[in-house]
Design brief:
Layout (H helix, E strand, L loop, with lengths): L2 E6 L8 H5 L4 E3 L6 E3 L3 E3 L2 E5 L5 H10 L5 E5 L5 E3 L17 H4 L7 E7 L4 E9 L2 E8 L2 H10 L6 H19 L16
Antiparallel strand pairs: 1-5, 1-6, 2-3, 4-5, 6-7, 8-9, 9-10
């Protein structure tokens, strides 16, 4: 019986857990924003591939590690799920998102970051300041996942809100670099050609 993996690229947030768990099947796209299911056939952002028997456990782990349930592993003959997460709407708590930056902002104890696009060197540069206007570390690259994971591995950030902010800003900066847009930290990107 053939085992297959179904990947919904529309749900993907580019977390990269699937790439770490099953690199034979998954890789991140060039800007690190979405995964790609290698050697697959697809339509409307749903991609399917047959799983080699020796790689089944890797793909199962990739599906389990996906934070947005974008990966399904199933038996092709019976259509029975091996890995899937079903969320029942009647049991999901819905919370309206709210945040007041002026009242709720807390400075990260480890410092803050200055982010810029260096067009001359064709890279995004993220400078860490542990003291006001004093840069102690600079991380650079062109892939958002690689940049913010390096920052995390170097233990330069503590506050989860700050980490979320940093991920958003690095993604914006990398998008600006790729599409030759102007990037100003904390401002929205001006995308005229889309």
């Amino acid at each position: 019986m053939a085992k297959k993996v179904e990947y919904n690229q529309g749900k993907c947030i580019g977390n990269g857990n699937c790439v770490a768990s099953a690199p034979y099947y998954f890789q991140l796209n060039e800007n690190g924003s979405k995964a790609i299911l290698k050697n697959s056939k697809g339509k409307d952002s749903i991609f399917i591939s047959t799983i080699e028997k020796s790689k089944l456990n890797d793909v199962i782990e990739a599906a389990k590690q996906c934070p947005v349930n974008a990966i399904r592993v199933y038996d092709d003959e019976t259509d029975e799920d091996i890995v899937s997460v079903n969320i029942k709407k009647d049991k999901v708590e819905e919370i309206k998102a709210e945040y007041n930056d002026l009242k709720e902002f807390v400075m990260d104890k480890k410092g803050y970051f200055l982010i810029r696009v260096n067009k001359e060197k064709q890279r995004v540069e993220v400078a860490h300041c542990s003291e006001i206007n004093k840069i102690d570390v600079m991380v650079y690259g062109t892939n958002p996942l690689e940049i913010y994971m390096t920052i995390i591995k170097k233990d330069l950030i503590e506050n989860m809100g700050h980490a979320a902010y940093l991920g958003r800003e690095i993604q914006k900066a990398c998008t600006a670099l790729k599409h030759n847009l102007e990037y100003v930290q904390d401002d929205e990107l001006k995308i005229n050609h889309l």
